[in-house]
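cache lookup: miss for this entity combination. No prior model stored, computing from scratch. Input as submitted by user K.M.:
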Amino acid sequence: MSECIAGRAKAPNALTITDKEFFYGHKACAGCGGSVAVRLIMKVLGERTFTVVPAGCISAVGFMYPQLCFTNNALISTFAGTASMMSGIAAGAKALGLKDFQVLGIAGDGGTADIGLQALSGAIDRRDKVIFVCYDNEAYMNTGIQKSGLTPLGAKTTTTPAGRNIRGSRTRKKNMFEIVAANGIDYAATASVGYIPDFLNKINKAKFVDGTSYIHVFAPCPTGWGTPTYCTIDLGKDVVDCGLWYLAEYENGEFVLNKNPKEFTSVKDYLSRQGRFRHLKDEDIEQIIRDRDRKWEIIRKSWKTKKN
Amino acid sequence: MNRPSITKYKTPVHISEYPVGPCYQAGHLVTENAGWRTEKPILDKEKCTGCFYCYLCCPEGVIFKLDGKIEIDYSFCKGCGICARVCKSEAIVMIREAKDGADGC
Amino acid sequence: MISAYPITPQTTVVERLSEMVEDGSLKSEFMHVESEHSALSACMGASSIGARTFTATSSQGLLYMAECLHYASGGRFPIVMMNANRSLALPWSIYGDQRDSLSLLDCGWIQVYAEDAQESLDMVIQSYAIAENLKVLTPVMLNLDGFALTHTYEVLEVPSSEDVDAFLPPFQTPYKMDLNSPKNMAFSSGPGDNMQFKYQQHKAMLDAIDVIRDVDESFFRLFGRRYGGLVEEYRCDDAEMVLVTLGSITGTCRVVVDELSQEGWKVGLLKIRFMRPFPEKEIMELSRRVMAVGVIDKDISFGYEGTVFTNVNSAIAKARTGILTMNFIAGLGGRDISRQDIRQMFLHLQEGLLGLEKNSMQFINLRVAIDE
Ligand SMILES: Cc1ncc(C[n+]2csc(CCOP(=O)(O)OP(=O)(O)O)c2C)c(N)n1
Ligand code: SF4
Ligand code: SF4
Ligand code: SF4
Ligand SMILES: [Mg+2]
């Protein structure tokens, strides 16, 4: 209880965050950005958390009996059923009179923006007190790097190969953040493993929201992206600095931009570090930059700016 | 206990030794990850300022705080090199993992 | 915790439950979900922390749940679900047959089929006692023939809440997520362990057979009604020909069996109450006493035969009695099965015994001529 009150006052930082580890001994690839996200979320939310993880990398690497890697209560949900299982836990807990707990879901981009979207919208609609986190590695990684609804334009995946006729994904990322906002969610935020204090702060906020929260955290994947294992945190920072991802919140019906870079760093540098974009021609990169600028024009015009 | 440790696992010989359905004690570890490494992070304690940024960034959670500096649980470190990369004080270097198990330092 | 998604003819059930939750006569959370997949996922979530759960569906909704059905039985979540048996599209039809539940016979759920309103009500109560038994921990699908049982009014005895509470105390299980003893659940297991978990499920289903009988007995002691385990025999003692039924058609069959008996026929009926666990012993034993068994199937596995028939036949084959068996496909898409149809079935059986009827499977009351 005292931990909760302290938490409400202030988000934990490197010094104050618990020493306890809740996601340990898992079999994710070395340098997995999703694992960084999961670990940190759990350290903020703590041991009185019921964690639901659908099919995807995190469940595959963390729940292979007899190696069970969550030290708190956790289970795998069906791929489509993350949010409804979370809601069920919340409702069951209410029926049983449990107090002082969190219900967390951790789904991949596919498990959120594609197959899990219907259930997520149901939970938001009911305003169930649950926290849904999407760790976005921009493809169906667990099944071998196929395109998802959050795969960005131009990215090579095993189902959007880079060939002579088509150069990677022809679709852009679904705008999950604004989709959940349009659902009338109580709290939503974007984050990145490249900006950890901001991320911790947002998880901490979600903890105290009386309703549904959604956090979309950018989580690089060395295996799927063709990047060195040590670059994961760098890439999470670069993507924000070059403007292809943004740090924002949606609260009380308003969009708030948390970081408004005066000048973007090079998109080309960000892309060319990754195997999945290596085939892109200059014209493709120009298109990506045009998309970015169009988005930022809207953001800067209509969103508030406030440092988190 | 801040992190789970390895439990000795006895392969069941009778069905009754299995959990009832897929439901078992949380944080039950039976294998390490040390064998995955090709490189190993080595800390220079002198250089470490105790900022604990590497501690936040490690995907495995194997970096822990000790007396204002950090230590690494090598049984679960996969040698990704993130810690070395993010350390502004260059207090961590990655060295080749010796094949025979002797780590050469 | 109740969560459900509307589909005809299940709607009456969830509407009444909503009202009961609203007026406080039923203490439960009622969750409005956006699909059947979510309805059952939510039940699993609630069940994973030890809450008692209920959902109801039918037909397309049951199939939409298919993934979760296997998930719930594999996860050993003792959920109770009512399924209003209804035909499956295409062509669309909201009327009753039993293809929905029978096509999911292998999903690891206990399957009960009720004959009338009283049995439906009593079996909801019994189902929890069966599902939640720690030897069983298997979800129960309680099947009610759509419209025949969901949209008709019958006089019935409603047990008091106190008696039901006494019969069914709050669910207690060590196999749940627990803040004082954290668990990882619904996990993966490799080829080295997976089969053992599957064996457990099989064993639990077999163990359910005794539990079903015991529950029925203790129910009888408290409420004065009993149903008799996996099957109920009707006038089988000196019967030569027996018709096997599932669900509400049993009522019509009883009438026909009575009529025929009066006319001097030696006929009986076997009502299968549980399709899983399957009443293998009972059917083997029956086959030693009778000369012919006919099975009414309100379903069909296209290109072969009815699913109930396949199951019944398999049990009879194991008894090595070599008696005549026949399959009557009837009532698909809600077609009425009349007393005349049932008489026709007994006639077929008799002709079969005389060697005049060779077809072991036929459509009853197809209404049009077909090429043989
Ligand atoms: C209903 C269903 N369809 C497909 C799958 C196969 N599947 C399992 S994990 C996965 C990919 C998950 O992708 P994402 O959600 O992005 O998570 P990631 O693996 O990238 O971490 C897929 C397609 C499944 N388990 N269930
Ligand atoms: S494929 Fe990517 S997301 Fe999946 S475990 Fe490996 S690094 Fe993590
Ligand atoms: S990042 Fe460097 S300085 Fe900071 S704690 Fe880690 S090793 Fe020490
Ligand atoms: S090398 Fe990777 S796994 Fe090992 S301590 Fe550093 S960050 Fe953690
Ligand atoms: Mg993904």
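stored under new cache key. The radius of gyration of chain C is 21 Å.
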